[in-house]
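Can anyone check this?
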Amino acid sequence: MLTIAILQVSAATYGQKITLSEKNAQLEKVLKKIRAQSGFSFLYEDTDLANSKAVNVNFSNVSIDDALEKLFINQQLSYSIKDKTVVIKSSKTPINQYVATIDIRGKVLDGDGKPLPGANVRVKGETKGTTANGNGEFELKGIDSKSILVISYIGFLTKEVAVNNQKQLTIGLDIDQSKLNEVVVIGYGTAKRSDLTGSVGQVNISDFQQAPVRSFDEALAGRVAGVQVTSSEGQPGSGIDIIIRGANSLTQDNSPLYVIDGFPTENFDNNAINPEEIESIDVLKDASASAIYGARGANGVIIITTKRGKVGLPVIKYNGSYGIQNNIYEVPLMSPYEYLKLQSEITATDFKNAYLGPIADPVNPTNPPIGYKYTLEDYRNVKGIDWQSQLFRTAPMQSHSLSMSGGTEKTRYSLSGQIFMQDGTIINSGYRRQQAKMTLDQTVNNKFKVGADFTYTSSKTFGSATSTAANSSMNNFLYSVWGYRPVTPIGVLPEDVIEEPSDDFVNTSTDYRFNPIMTAENQLRQTFARNFVGNGYAEYTFIPGLKLRISGGINRVQRRAESFNNSNTYSGSPSNPFTNGPNGSITNFETTTWSNENILTYDKKFDKNHKLNVIGGFTLNGNKYGYYGLSANALPNEALGLSGLASGTPQPVTSYNSEWALVSGLARVNYSYKNKYLFTASMRADGSSKFGPGNQWGYFPSGAIAWKLINEDFMKNISFLSDAKLRLSWGITGNNRVGDGDRFAQMTYPINSYYSFNNGLAQGINITNVGSPNLKWESTKQTDIGLDVGFLKDRIGFTAEYYRKNTTDLLLNALLPYTSGYVSAFKNIGATRNEGFEFSINTTNIKNKNFSWTTSFNIAFNRNKIIELTENQESLTSNISWDSFYSAVPLYIAKLGQPIGQIYGYIWDGVYQLDDFTQPTPTTYLLKPEIATNGNARTSIRPGDIKYRDINGDGVVNDFDRTVIGRAYPIHQGGMSNNFKYKNFDLGVFLQWSYGNDIVNANKLIFEAGNKAFLNQYATYQDRWTPENTNTTMHRSGGQYGYNYSTRIVEDGSFLRLKTVSLGYTLPKTLINTVKIKGLRVYASAQNLFTWTNYSGSDPEVNVKRTALTPGFDYSAYPRARTITFGAGLSF
């Protein structure tokens, strides 16, 4: 008879541990007691249990798995577990009967080949087991030759290893990624998070790698509190800016120092790292953490550790994905009818002659037309040309990575390669990358080990640049996409216009409208890059705890930028009066960076109360950079492309070379007393060739203390508190990102500049920069206070931090006396301050056998302000080079006591209405005396003209009425990720936001202007002021002063973005083991899925000018794409 034993229990009972003691008891009796404690059901035939042997058990708080394994030893029974049901069947051969036994010796190691003393080793299904000794070695005797060993160690993933008659085993364990954040990488070493005295942010790599990305910084935004990540635009391969805790410098680079596998580098190409190869990312934020990098640590440090070989059998992994990218947003433009209606207001005669079909005077054709064939109404339902749909496309993106890694106790290795291909959503644009990487680590003996790694990356970026032209707004690509006429005259096919190189309706002496589709198809813009990184190290342990590590590396980057414009492009068309016909250029760049580090480490725990870690050493670093370029215009045979440059009109050759070196000494002491009181002190001295005598050396000390309150006796009775630590740090760091030759005077050889010498003419030299021999570092003093708290056995982790950074000796252009003959020179005279709060919360909301839900949340508030400028200077204005008209018009202002990045201009007050005027005659308008005028021409103002606020009340709106009209840096920013797991399914959802930042939407100055002939406008301009439509704030067509910087073009750039959603499924091992696959996960992900914002542009995350003084500027930016990706990860 089939017996089913079922017990209904509560969720609290399910999962309860088994505690049971029985001697010589019937198996069925024991099963019933286990059922009562665990809530599991048992399914079996009565006859199968009738012949079972009596059992002796003594279980104390063991799991159901362990209890059943021990219970069925030497029984002629087998069992299987599904959900909460145990199925028991008869077995002809009892377990452990008639088997061949062997003796086994082995060693348990971590991925780096270090022993794991105390590791637990047991035989699956039996009571036999042991623990590894101090060298990680173990021995088991009389073991079934076909048994399975189960190896476990705290902080590592449990591993099962089949014996397969092997008598000697080396077993490597992998770190449990869920515990990875317990160890962080700091400068020249690692530390437990619980022992940190400084502020170090860490990225959860499992979250980070949920969706395929081109570079790691694309996925970094919103992951770490206080780290602002801004992409300039959405073009594949475009630059990304990372700022940690606010911008310190006004004129120099604010990007952090990158340390890649121990190799420090500035101006790092983030595209050179395959994101799938990253093991960990740690961000050093405060001076206590970053001062060990001295003159290069003021902007923070990002430490990236890539994957290396680990002990164990070879593991082969493949990860492939294929995605589809779509343009998220197309700008609403005027319809053909509205466009022509506007043209009839701006240029009535030209409009009629172009579109209404003039009827010539048969008597005298030179007279004005006697009539027209068509009317404006004939165009009301014309479909027209959608230039955006012609330009944008659905673009594929795919990635294929293959790696192999493994090793023994002595030798560990890894090999990997990747092919990444991303097409842009604008035709003929994209990015390609191929990468190969190799690592090798060799333990020569128990004292000496060596290792090396090599990475080679080759990439290609191609496509028309959309926002980099500086001298004219019409040079930028989207100017013609949005502005090109959307309709052809009746009788002319739209296809004919698409094939025209330029718009012949436009007066080319003042404007030039090129065919954007033809340009995108014919313009060559491509950059090839080759990046090689080689690192090597040797490490010798003198005595336990004392070791010397010597490492060296080189990074060589070669880039070749090619540009060619044939006659069917804007820059090469013979009809363009602003260019010189077909032209091309080639520029070669080369950068070589090298590093040598020599670090001695002493790590000692004296007794239970004292723990000491000391490092000391010196480093050498150097960099050499250079480029040369050649170009030619008026190429007679454009079919030759760049091969025909020699036949064109040559242009002056460009070239540049620079070199610097840095020598440093460093030391750091970490001391822990009773695991309650932690102390850190560090010092670094840097000598740089960038500075002159007397300023070459800089000294950068830091200190920090931490108090582990949780380990105090008075905290032990607070049961809900699992961690509590208070931190305080202070330190000085430097910024050496000055030009290699800034301290020297700069000279040029101007054309046609000669002087008389020895009765002849000699080439003259002009000193264009007087030089600054007293230049020195920009220095940042930083104080940080932090609190780390854990609740409910660390199911809730909370961190709060306050920081203040004072940066002095800013490099600014200071005015020189008139007697010097020069206007200004760089000097160390300015100061800024950044201060803010950061909060991070990590929670395990639900975790049981089948389902888990975790959340990570961070938010950061930063405030900066100007403390000091040059002598007697209260403000500093900055211009944007995007159009020649605005080249001398200030858009940003930095004032003493106020934030960096403030937007400067007029306050927009809508338009002048009829009530603002008196009307002596039906066609005459006189502005009322009490109404302020734009400029001094009161008689030229008309109803519908744009209106600005007269701040000083003098009746005239002029330069004195400019004021702060926006703030480009956010009030706060952050991110939140939620990760769900149900059985083999995983779901990740990541949100990112920015709040309180403004954006200058300069596109409105062109496409809500209404004063350019045959230039299409945004659809919003349809609501412009007309005598019939006076209830509006949009200015009239053909009016005045609509081009000024004002609040009209400053918009709220706050946004909330659903940045990543990833859904994956890991196939059960029972399903894939039959085909010898170790693991298989399939997934689908979406990036940039939705964005909630009030910004009217294509995307609020934009910064095309990318300097500290000119943030948040948008003109002709390449739109960001929404990406849907499908992929699979496979391991053997």
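Reply from J.R.: I decoded it. Residues 918 and 1022 are 27 Å apart (CA to CA).
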